[in-house]
Each structure stands twice: as structure tokens, then as C-alpha cells.
Fold these 2 entries.
Entry 1:
Amino acid sequence: MSLPISKKNNAKSIYNKNIYLNFAKYILNCQDSDGGIRWEPSSKLDPWDHIESAMGIDVLGFESESKKAYEWLESNQETDGSWYSLYHSSETNFLKETNFSSYIAVGMWHHYLNFKDKEFLRRFWPTLDLAIKFTLSGQTKHGDISWAKDQENWLDDSLKTGCSSIYMSLISYKKIAEEIKTRDRVSDDQLKKLRDCINLKPHRFDRNWESKSRYSMDWYYPVLSGAFNKKRSISTIKERWNEFVIDELGCKCVTEEPWVTAAESSELVLALVRTGLKKEAEKILQDTFNLIDDDGLLWTGFVYKDKKFWPIEKPSWTAGAAILAGNSLNKFSNSWDFFNF
């Protein structure tokens, strides 16, 4: 593991709150009047990244703008509780991904921890409950949850990262139900089967396509989501550290490409903080912030072999992930330990 960095007060320091405020203001620039948060201004939108961006602005206190993001979800939800995978795009995409639909639970619980507004939870509970109903309808007898449904049928495969995200969503959903004293639809058996599948049934993932184990998200997401216990989390992180982490640059997206990505690096920070590896988390985030552009924003990624940023985009959700990582270390808001439950 890398040694911790020194706490330098420079323009790109992970301890400089103005960096995160700049990230948040950029997210607001990507938000439409109806509350939808696009990847970039006037770009495409997907529900999962929309929520990640809303969580980012929560941390910096933009409560009303965050609420509008949930109004967008409320207005655009399908009758079965799902959302389409992509909006505002020339690409035709009518897939309904389960981890996209369930992630509203994570966002809502995070929003509540920041602002303690139970009325917010009550207002959007029907939207959330219907989304969880859709997600659970994709659970198989083995415990995994099918990754998506087309206009008629469930698609026959599951994702480890997706199921890990859903596990975190179901935990958040149950916490919301407890907080507003309402009955939830997730049984202990359903939750246990999902967690057991993530821990014990690797054969249930990537059954009909190439393994996703080359992606760093498959490595750290079971840790980040709480699907793995602490002992297994630490061993998992150490086991593949050298495959994914590039010193001074951050975390790779996939093993075989010389490409580090800011969002994956930020999420790895959250997984490291969760497991108590704070020094390593500080180092990864600082390495990522070394790649901040002159406008104070993060590109999606950096191809270090060619010394070029790629793709040429600065997504709102990358800024959101970086804010969440920074909050876990700086304790900017009440949700700083959100990913530690």
C-alpha cells in the first residue's frame, strides 16, 4: 500500500473545500429546469448518474436543487416502477436496468441524512417503493437480480457490480421505511439471498457474456456496498491492488488499458474509507486531484501511456463521486460516514 500524503494547503489539495464547491456548481450547471441532471450541459442523462450527481450537491447544501432531481425521477418513472437507461440521447435505449431503478433509495437516504427532512422521505416514498418493487421482480431463485428488462422480458444475466449496488439500495430502502414508520416490501430472505449470491455464487454473474472481472468496479463495489464483511473487504482490496492502482494517478477502469478514471478512483476512496484504510484513501484521492484541469474540473479519465485526457468530457457524475469521496475524508456534512453503514 502507498504511504499517506502530507496535508499541503495547495490549490488541488483534497482538503480544500473550494474544489468541491466548484464541482457542485458545475453539477448545477448541468441541471435542467425540470430537475434532470445531465452528464454535461445539454448532454445525455441516465438515472443512476443523475442520482450520484444529486448526492454530490447534497453535501454542499444545495437542498432545493437536490429535491428537484427527485421531482424529475417522480415525473419520469414508468408505470412498472422503472426508468429507462438513457434520456436526451440520439441512441435508442428502452432497457430498464435494475440497479439504475433501485439507486433512488441510496440517494434519498443520503439526502435525508444531510437535511433531516422526513417530509421529503414521505413525499417520494411511493416513487421509491414502486422502484424497489420493479427491482425485486427481477430476483432469481439463486438470489441474484437480473441486470435489465427490455420492453417485454428480463435479460438472462446478472452483474456483480449491479447486484452490489442493489444490495446497498435495499438496505437504504429499509432504513427509510423504518425512519417514517411504514412497512417495506423487502424480506430478510430476499436480502440474505442477494448477499449470499454476491459472496458465494460467482457463477451467477456474467453467464452469457465475457467476465466483467477486468473492471475495477467488480473489484471494489462489493466492498463499497457492504455486501462483503470487513475481513473479506480488506483481503479483496489487497488482493488486486496492484492490478488497478497506478501510483500518482489513481485507479484504472479496466486491467488491460493504461487508463485511470476519476469516478472509479473516487469510489475506490469510499471503499477504502469503509474498510478503515484512510491513509490509502487520502493518497488515491490526492493522486486523482492532481489531474484536475485549469477550470477546476475533472475529466473522465487519463490515458497515461499517451499522456492524454480521454474521453473529452467532464461528467457531472464524476464531480459528484469526487464530492462524496472528499466528504468521507473531510466530514463536510452530516452524511460523511454514509458509506460506512
Entry 2:
Amino acid sequence: MRYGLISFLLLALFAGNLMAQDSADAAFLEEWLSKLKDVRFEKMDHNEHFTAAYVLYFTQPLDHNNPGGKTFTQRVYLFHKDFSKPVVFVTEGYVADYVKHPRVLYELTDMLDANQIIVEHRFFGQSVPDTLQWEYLNIHQAASDHHRVVELFKGLYRGKWVNTGISKGGQTAMYHRYFYPGDVDATVGYVCPLNFSIADARVAPFMKHVGDSSCRAAILNFQKRLLKNRDLYYPEFVNLANKENLVYSIGEEKAYEYTVMEYAFAFWQWGRWSCDSIPGEEASPQQVINHVNTVAGIDWVSDQGIKRYEPFYYQALTEIGFYGYDTSQFDGLIRYVDNPTFTFTCPKGAACIYNPLPMQEVDQFIRHRARNMMFIYGETDPWSSTAVQLSGDDNVVRIIRPHGAHFSRIGNLPEDLKEYVRKTLQQWLDVEVKL
């Protein structure tokens, strides 16, 4: 009993010391933040993994080549654990509203027992300049945003740094590493494409071989049925669009065709549906269009949908590329879409002229000069058709999750691949990596 009491007292003392240290860290951090002229901050709730969390409003140059010019406020989230621990630096590709949820914890943060910093992408969410000067939305300006944030915190957090992101966020991490290779010690990009045009030619051949042949045939037949029987399904499409108050500046007929063509890409990208879920001939038009809406989203090319992702479309049409559709497989059933790309999404007043050079340079960097970069893709995700290409260097690895879609992560890899990830990251970072 005496030894049990001693153990209890020691544990209580240890817990008290930890709480005191956490409080001291938070006080120091808040005092340090309060002295920064370009940052204001607010405390926020956090996952129990962390001891403190803050949303920061960070003043950034609109043009990093002219730091004395116009500025905008970028939203940055700081989740603190320990100044000596690693930092997982998340380069969000879109809006970061989800971070307000107190349980946000990236799997790498858990694996590395790390601090976590999440940066909302410029021109998205609350990180928007007063005037949308589109020429300043490019990969170099965004990477420079991230570089300034890293520079600010690098002196505080002495552990290893890993930048990461999912989908467009993974692309953003890739570009950050290209422009500022010394900012972090490793990169983990999830399901992030490296496209070479506004309608990358590698997508269509991938779609002809993805998954099971009988499932591909069922999807194509369903799409053809939607196009052949417009008199049956198109009115229900318009009816649902009216209920959702959607507007299509490209025209409802063209929007219908785009949505039908998008169905196959979305089906394989998200991987949420079995081929048996495709409605048969007996399904009502309402059931059919509701299914199409669930998979592809009829707001996909609506004015509202385009507006929501307008900064992404600008980037896709000027630098980071995108995909188009193969209309030849529809046997002349496409009547309104004459150019199956997304040039119609270019923001008004913007000059959307595609420059292939940035992605070619990033490609050369990854193939020949990059170090400690890991990319994870899903086998059936169409975005894996434009995955990064490697030169065989062990310091850059690409992992394909069998039968995986756009939700492929380290946590849902097969056990042997999980262990490979763990060992690789441990070797690169020289820290313990847990699964």
C-alpha cells in the first residue's frame, strides 16, 4: 500500500508539472505572438493532442516581389504541443473553415506526435485581398506565403518540419517544396496530380482501363442512356436545378451534358458507390437524376458551383492544369458541348492563358533534385493518372493504395505499405513514427 501511495503521488506530481509546463508554454506563446506587428490572434478550442491553439490573421504581401505594396490577411491555424516536437505544416489548397472544428488532427500529426500549422490558401475563404487581382494568384506567390509563415515559426519550433496536403493541398505542398526546398525536412502529398495541360491527355486512357471492365461498361451504358433518353431525364434535371435555385450561364442543355460526362470521373474518384448502385431501366427519372446528383453534383457547372471554386479554376486554366472529357465514346450523343474543357470557368476580367512551364519545372525538380518526398495515391482515383513521375531515386517515393480512391491515406493502406511509410519517414526525419 505504501508503494502504491508513493506511485500515485509521483504520478500526480508529474501530471502537475506537465500542466504547469503547458500553461507556461501557452503564456510564452501568447506573449510572443502579441509582439508581432503583422499578426493578430485569437484562442480557439483544440483536440486533446494539443495544449493550446490559435487562429492567426497574418498580413501577407499581395505580391512578394513588391513587399512594400498591397497586402491581404491570410488565415493561419496554430496548434501547439511542444516546442521541441516536430511540426506538420498543412498547405491547404482551398478554404480552411473545417479547421474551426476542435478535433482537427491530421494523421501525420498523430504519427509524429507533432505540432500542427494549417494555412488557408490565398484567394480562398477569409484569405482574400480587397481586390481580386488574379495575376497574383499563382504557385510562386502561394509558396512565398508559406515560406514567410515557416520563417516566422522556425525559430520557435526546433523539431523536424513536414509539409503536407490533400488533393490541391498536396499540389500546394509540392509547389512550396519546389520553390523553398529547405523550408521543411520532408513532404507527404496525398492524391495530388501533376497536370501538364488544361485537359491532360493521360486521363482518357486511364478511364478506359480503370477498375473492372463490367463496371466500366455499366457506367458508360448509364451515361449513354441519360443522353439517348433526354426527353425522360433532362426535364427532371431542370426541375431539380430549379428546386436548388441553380443558374447555368453556359445553358441548361450544355450543363446537362457536362454533368453526364462528369459522372464517370466522379464515380471513380470518390469510390463511394458499387456498380450495383447504378439505377436500372426500372428506376424513375427522379431516382436517376437524384443518383446523378449524389455522384457528380448537378451544381458542378452551375454559376454557384463555379463561383465557389473560382480561384481553383483560375489556377487550373493558367498553371496547374485540369482534365477534359473524351466525347468520342458517346457515339455522337453530345450535342451542345463542342469543346469538352473548362475554359468557360475563367473569372470575368481575368486572362486565363495556360503556361505549361511551371508544371514542367516542378516535374523536373521531383524527378531529379527533390529529396524526402512521398506521394500517396489511390489505384482507381482518376487523379492518379496524372500522378508525379519518378526517376528511381529512393529519396522520392510514390505509393499506390490497391483499389483506393481519393480518400487514400496512410491509415487505410495495407499493413505492409503502412510499415514501409513508417520506416521511410523515420529514416528521413530521425524521429519515432507510430502507426
